[in-house]
Structures are given as C-alpha cells and as structure tokens.
Amino acid sequence: MFQQHGVRSLRSFRPLHQRPPPDLRDLTPLAPRPAPPAWPPRSEYGQYDIPTADVMINFKVGQPAESMLPLDEIRKAAAHKFAETDQLFLQYGFISGYPRFRRSLATFLSEWYKAPVEADNLFVTNGVTGGLGLYCMVYATAGETVFAEEPTYFLAKAIFADFGLNVVQIPMDPDGINIEALEAQLEAGNIPKFLYTIPTAHNPTGRTMSVAKRAKLVALGAQYGFHIIADEVYQLLTFPGVEAPPPLFTFDDTEDGVVISLGSFSKILAPALRLGWMEANPKILKKIFDCGTLDSSGGINPVIQGIVHSAIDLGIQAEYLTKTKQTLSDRYSALAAALTEHLPAGTTFEVPEGGYFVLVQLPEGTDSVAFNNFCQETDKKVMFLPGASFGASYGNFLRLSFSYYNAADMAVGAERLGKAITAFLSQ
Amino acid sequence: MFQQHGVRSLRSFRPLHQRPPPDLRDLTPLAPRPAPPAWPPRSEYGQYDIPTADVMINFKVGQPAESMLPLDEIRKAAAHKFAETDQLFLQYGFISGYPRFRRSLATFLSEWYKAPVEADNLFVTNGVTGGLGLYCMVYATAGETVFAEEPTYFLAKAIFADFGLNVVQIPMDPDGINIEALEAQLEAGNIPKFLYTIPTAHNPTGRTMSVAKRAKLVALGAQYGFHIIADEVYQLLTFPGVEAPPPLFTFDDTEDGVVISLGSFSKILAPALRLGWMEANPKILKKIFDCGTLDSSGGINPVIQGIVHSAIDLGIQAEYLTKTKQTLSDRYSALAAALTEHLPAGTTFEVPEGGYFVLVQLPEGTDSVAFNNFCQETDKKVMFLPGASFGASYGNFLRLSFSYYNAADMAVGAERLGKAITAFLSQ
C-alpha cells in the first residue's frame, strides 16, 4: 500500500555555538540556505539554535517551548532541597536511586497512573534515553535483533544502532501494534532480544495501544521469552479528558518479569534535569544494579534526584503537569485548526491522544524527503520530519511537533506547509 | 616472582536501605558476620551504609569522607546559578556541554594543569565512568581486546566487562607502564582496541607515569593505531609539593588524535554531581557527538554543569581543591605513620604520589583473599581490597584507602591490620 523508500535521517537543526558550522550529519544539501542564526546566539543554552518564526517554522523540533520551561519552579525546588544539611547528599548515591526519592516518586506515579507503583520496582535513570542505554549495555549484545513499531521514535533506532542492534519494525494499527504481524514473526522463529514500544500517545502517530493489545503483547513476551521495553514518556501527557490505559508494567504478572516501563521528567518537568525511571520486576533490575558501571559511579544523578524529590513533595510537579497537559492540548488544537484550514485536499492528518506530535499523510506516492528538500530549496520557510525517518513504509508521511511553537507561529507554519504541498504536487 | 591467583571481586559493603539484604555479588561468605548496620540507616543518602569504626574499618572504601563533602559550597554555587533567568537553562542541552561552561572549565584546567586546555577539546560527561561508557558504546564492540595496566582500577575491568570487552593487563614499573612488555605485545601483533591507563597517582599503586613514558606511550598509540584512554581522576590530586607531569592529552600531537583524557568532579568537588569531562582531538569527539544516544538526550547534565560552572567562577572549586589536596596528604601521612608503626616485618607499603590509595605488600606467597576471609571469620574488624581484584600477579597485595576515615580511625585500622597479619602468618 505504501511506497518504499530508503531510510534517511535528516538533522535539520543547526547546533548552537559552533563556528565554523558543525558537521550536520545527513543534512540534505540546501541551496540557497536559510539565513544563518544571529551570532552570538540568543542564549548560551539549548541543544540547537532554533530559528525564529520569520526565518523558519521547524516542525521537527520535539522539545518543549521555551515558555513552558519551569525555571521559577525548579529554582524553588532547588532552594528547598539545598536546605539539606546531611553532607552525604553529595556522596556517591544508592545505585537504584535514594529510597525516599523512590518512595516519593512511587506515590506520585500511583496517583497519576491510577495504578499502584512500588518503590522497589523503580530504578532511577538519566531519562528514557539513559534507561534504554543502561538496558542495552547490560542485556543486549551487538548483532542481536530487536523489534519496534513501524513507525517508531526515529532516535530510538539511532540509539539501538549505537549498541549495534538490528531493528525490525512491526506494523501498527490505530489501536497499537499489529498483533498478527508480530505473531507471524514469532511463529516463524524470529524472537527479538526485546520489543520496543511507545504504548501511549505514540511518537509519531499519537495513537494509544488498547488494553486488550497491552495484555496480549505482555502474554507474547512471556510466551516467547523476550522483554518488552515500554517508552512511556507520554503516558502522563494524554490530553485533558483522555484517559490513558494503565502503563504496560501493570500488565506484567509474570514471575521473572517481562516489561520494562521507562518514564522521564524531560517532558513532564524539564529536559535539562536528565532524570527518569525504569519500572520493572526487581529480578530484571538486579542485573542492572549489579553492573560494573553503576558499581563504579553509584546511583544516577543524586543531586537532581534531590531537586525533583522536592518538586514532587512541594506539589510543583503535579501543578506543572496539569498545566502542561492543557498547554499541549491547546497547542494541538491550534495546529489542528490551522492544518484543517490550510492543508490541500488529499492531505490528511491523524488525531493524537496526547503527546507532542501530529502525523500528516500526503497523497500516496508522494516522497516527503523530496518534499522537504523542495521546501528548503525554494525557501518555503517550513521544515518537518519526513516519514522515512521513522518507518520505510511512511515515505508519504511527515511528522509535525506542536510542543515548540505558539499558536500564531504554528498557524503561519501550517499555511506555509499547505502552500508548499500544493506547489510541490503541482510541479 | 608473584604467585598467581584467580581474580575475585569482593564487594565488601552492605548497600544501604534494603531489607532483606541485597545480593552481595561475589561476597565471600562470612561467619560470623559483622553486626548489621542500624535500621533505619544513619542517612537516607549514600551508596553504602559504611559501618562505624568500632564495628569495622573498611579500608576498601574509595570515597571521600563525609566531612570532606562541600555541601555549603555547592549550596552557594547552586544559589548563584539559580539566579539565572534564561529559561533555556532547562532545555535539552548542547551535546558537548554548553560553551560558556566549557570555556570556564578550560580556563580552570589550564591553570591547574599548567598546560593550555581548549574548550573545543572538551566534552562533558557523567564523570570518568560516564566517559568510559560513552567511549565504549561509540568506539568498541563486544569481543574486542583492550589493554590496562597490571594492577589497575578494579571497577574499570568491570565496566569493560559490561561492554563485553576482554582485558589484557600489562605490567607496571615504578615509573608507569612497562613499555617493553607493551611493545612485545604490539610487535606480536596484539593491537588493542584501546589502552586504559591511570597516569598520575595511579589506583592502586599511587605511582605516576614519567614524562618519557607518557611520550613513548602516545607514540606507540600513533604507530600501532590504538587509542589511549587516560583516567586522570587523580591528576589534580597529587600531594602538595608533588608536581604532576602534564596530562596525557598534552603529549598528543597527532593529526587525528590518539589520547582521550578523562577527568571528573567526583573527587575534586563531589561524587553526587555525576559530572566530568573528556579532553581529546575534536575528530575523536565528533563520533561521540554524533551518536544517537546524545542526539536523543542532548548534552549531559546541563543543570549540574550550571552549578559547577558557578563553583568554578566563584572560586569555590579552586579553594576546595586546595583544601582537599592538603586533607588527602594529611590523611595519607597519618595512615603511613600508623602502618609504619603497626605492620609486621616483611610487610611493606608503597609511597603514593597522591590520590586515594596505598598499596601494601604482604610476604611473598601470602594470599590476600584468604587473609581477608580470615579477618572477617575471626572478626578482626578490618577490611581492604585484595590484590587479586586489580591484577592476577598481585595476590599478596592489598589496597588501603586513606580518603574515607580520619587519622584516629585509620590508626585503629592499621593496628588491627598489623595484628591480623601477624595472626594470619603465624597460623
């Protein structure tokens, strides 16, 4: 049904602060290029120097807007934590995270998940990326095969490549992974080292896996003996009024554990904290606890654990999360309205359950990599993540983020995008 | 010359906060066991619940003393940094560390190294452990062989095992790695993926590699095409009056880069910060910059970078480092005096150039693993790291840390150790 294209990873940001410009891996050559960002950069911080809306609406940016970053709140939490007088706060930390923090986190998650979370099943990480890295280091070996949904988070594929793992993608339905396609692989003897899934408000589709599929997926993991890594970064970021099913770990009633649920404070508090958690059976966590790397370093980010601990206990985390869910929902609504107004006939988009992204489908046979190149070459001042990045069958799709730009800017971007599609298709 | 023993890793601490007691990997069974620590633990923080001196002097503990942890100073640095009003401080960070922080770090290191350091050669890590992990993930593949000194940091071997690497150890001389032994391996065609060395105030010997050997080692890396990872965690921790040779990266004048110098704030500021740096040719750093993991997570620990940035700029780091060098020197002197007083004839120790550790040599043929078991079985209330952990030829050696206990406690420990040696040898 879909056209097949080679996968290309486009890195469309200009990393900050480097002169001459850094190597932009896989960047499609552009001529003419957009105006370079001002020097010195607007801020000394940030991963990328993201252009202002007049220069470019870069819908690829999967980061919170600057205005969403809770600096006042984190300042309060840090001041609260640094009232601490126990100097051991600065010592090498307990490997799975300090117990009072994990208990506080468990209480917070139990309330928001509406499902009980035990502190002993939690293991503090450097965010979802850190959790994936730790898991892969301890459990996976280069050359092994892992499964992921098609489409999937494009950088998860890059992380698995860092560990030399081969990724096989399994198609998705509107209610999550296609179980028949997965079973066909398993019955054919193709058992992955693990399966990576984004069960709730999936990136890039915005879809949420049904309860029935969650149960079935966990049963298949138990039956065939593979772990399931659930990237639940959007579990708490469904839109207000949208009830997420329980996290995947809730379905794991196996003796030895099958599911590793990964969570993160990056998108529910602040990315720069580099803090997140795993939730899994202690038997799974034990091998991670015992690794040489953590024996050497002690626990992950104890000082930041402390600051986030205060953010939770002071109610800052809950208040910020409530506000953020509304902000993201409002931004999605604004983008959806603008897309509805500006996208030409034949171009559609999917309604997400939450998260950061909208998946747009161009007419069948359209190559969104070529379209993105066209946009840059003809200075359409709009950019996005082409579908080939997240799945070979998604060549005529593109991903738009609604987290970064405000409503007015997104309306400008949607209009630019609509006009660009019309121009590209009429070539 | 030395007796050969199988390598055993002893984990002699009781990790904090777990009931029932956690699995203590490789712990030699002990009967009777020391009294369990009080519950609840004395502190909610820390990697291990380290017994008080009346119960045990655990010379294995390679951590700063509680009294050395600069909580007031870090509180000041955090308060200074959180006066920040740029919300992008909380965004995903620039992958190699934010430029102003790296420039500040470069200035600090240039002064203390007495050798110029360029911000563009620096890459922020989660400490030496984090740097090793990042390097191994990007550059090494399971099954490859790496070289290390014999003896070496016992947990570096465990970290390499996490990545499936085989470690071959090369003997050391008083002035560093035995170049002839290394050349013999290389000439025989045994080229490692990389060589791991601790050039200054080496763990566990306290030795410092000579300038001539530094130059020769780098030349061999360039000639045979292998990287040299220099763990320079003690480079700034030589005793007052002991001038360290320039860091290993200083000797790297190759076009593409051979040396990766790893530094850390764990032992010059505070372990819980989980912050350190790599210094290397940008060509080496580029592959790390480009990995999927960091593309996904952004830079490492931006908030902690900010706090340490303030600690450097406010002079807190320099003041603390000066004080810490003196503290460690004083503690070493106290331990050396006590060892001189209490060790029986035939047992010697090596005078370190700095760092955290003293290497003690028991009479030839003595098995320090058996001796440690003896100490626990007969309740000698003293513990140490047996030499087999850091090198197969070091079966009659043991490592003592002087960072953790104060002078009075170390004197007690040295007396216990001396008596225990006499008792063990007279069995």
Structure explained in plain terms:
The structure is a homodimer of 427-residue chains. Chain A is an alpha/beta fold and 427 residues long. Chain A has 2 domains: 57-65 and 318-425, Aspartate Aminotransferase, domain 1; 72-314, Aspartate Aminotransferase, domain 2. Chain A contains 12 helices and 14 strands. The first copy, chain A, has helices at residues 71-81, 99-113, 127-139, 154-162, 179-187, 211-224, 282-289, 292-297, 302-313, 316-342, 368-377, 407-425; strands spanning 57-58, 122-125, 145-150, 166-173, 176-177, 194-197, 227-231, 259-264, 276-279, 348-349, 357-361, 382-383, 385-386, 397-401. Chain A has an 8-stranded mixed sheet, with helices on both faces. In chain A, helix 1 crosses helix 9, helix 2 crosses helix 9 (302-313) and helix 10 (316-342) runs parallel beside helix 12. Chain A is globular, with a radius of gyration of 22 Å. Chain A starts with 56 loop residues before the first strand and ends with a helix. Chains A and B meet through helix 1, helix 3, helix 4, helix 8 and helix 9 of A and helix 1, helix 3, helix 4, helix 8 and helix 9 of B.
Set out the fold topology:
Two copies of one chain form a homodimer.
Chain A: E1 57-58, H1 71-81, H2 99-113, E2 122-125, H3 127-139, E3 145-150, H4 154-162, E4 166-173, E5 176-177, H5 179-187, E6 194-197, H6 211-224, E7 227-231, E8 259-264, E9 276-279, H7 282-289, H8 292-297, H9 302-313, H10 316-342, E10 348-349, E11 357-361, H11 368-377, E12 382-383, E13 385-386, E14 397-401, H12 407-425
Parallel strand pairs in A: 1-12, 3-4, 3-6, 6-7, 7-8
Antiparallel strand pairs in A: 2-9, 4-5, 8-9, 10-11, 11-14, 13-14
